[in-house]
Amino acid sequence: MQQEDTISAIATAGGEAGIGIVRISGRTALSVADRIFRAKNGKRLSDMESHRAVYGTVADDEGRPVDEAMALIMRSPHSYTKEDVVELQCHGGRLVLRQVLSLTYCAGARPAERGEFTKRAFLNGRLDLSQAQAVMDVIQAKTDSALRAAEGNLSGKFSAKIREMRNEILGVIAHLEALIDFPEEDVDDISLEDARKTVAGLADRLRKLLQTAHAGQILREGLMTAIIGRPNVGKSSLLNMLLRTERAIVTDIPGTTRDSIEEYADIGGVPLRIIDTAGIRATEDKVERIGVEKSREYAEQAALLLVLFDGSQELSTEDEEILALLEGKQAILLVNKSDLPQKVDPGILRQRFPDFPVLPISTKAENGLESLQKAILDKVYTTGCDEEETTLVRDEREAHLLRRVLEHLNEAINAMDGSMDADLVSIDLRSAWEILGELTGEMAGEDIIDEIFSRFCIGK
Ligand code: GDP
Is the dihedral of CA 82, 84, 88, 93 positive or negative? Predict the structure, then answer.
């Protein structure tokens, strides 16, 4: 069960903090830790039981102390990776943690690759592939709803559904193969009918699950949103209103300039990822043309457009040019400055653009946020999926695999309805069974698995 080599990494986030953890995992984790850690009670970690914490000092080979620490021992198989694991809880400074980490290397560990702890947990059967990915989703969740969905997947709800489907498919295959192997026996019409029902039921469940893919992906990645409109309509005021909610999350993307700050507004549990907030806030450029050009640029990148108008003024040529950008897009039209006497009639806009919600708002009086929130939720939780759903398809890879499974099931149903060639039906069902196994990882190729874990951070 334990991999040959022992790995180590800093498991806590960079920066200064009360504590920071260096995690060591593998066959020699305890002896690596013993070389650099002196317990106050004089005992060696290798001589201690699992799930003990001891106080002591991390020191180099010459005995020079580097930091005080608590060592946590988790013996195989009762650890995150199912291997022997030692966690050294040190002080949370960059330098001190780097020094402790390099001591673990001198003592025989090697640097962990991205996601390698979780990958070992997967390879050792503690988590399946869907659960392993959910680990990352829990860490990166931006809203309560996103966290709830990620926790649902981590606890294995999604995997359980997939396993159940695989088992049912296997049952039908076994039944069909008995027919193929013993064709001289009486064909049992009733049980064939049952098999068809089972497969049709499976296809139904798959379709329902696939309907969650839209919301699942948005909750995880954020809904790419652009606020567009000509200058002075209130774009930066709206942005500030959205980001002022206490739950808004701003994340720095490490290793990039300050331009790549990501801002997420939490709108009823939906993380809105607002494109180029710096550009929206820059108020120096009040030239109308620039407003239209910027709007065009953003409209191309965004999945959702919040289109602002100044309700206290007649629609201008620029407003009309921006309206012309909306064809084929997802948009919500916002008639702002509803606190002032109005010159724009939302009813007329509604008639002209029946596909888009048209809402009066006032960023100044902070009116209309609730109806905006509702309009956004309506776009995310479309048919067949509601906000309470916690088993969600998480990304395009899963959705793609599920769609392929559905195709095979439909083919199987067609074959059952038509020629009833048991061989053909069974081939499709086998394919469906195999593809479902790629979701849980039982059937996933090594390259796919490597690719998935390489998206994790180091130390996870
Ligand atoms: P932007 O150029 O589109 O980003 O617009 P701003 O957010 O900078 O707003 C332009 C002007 O309109 C500012 O003076 C705001 O105070 C004002 N403004 C924005 N929203 C409202 C509103 O709802 N009501 C009123 N009366 N004024 C607003």
Answer: negative
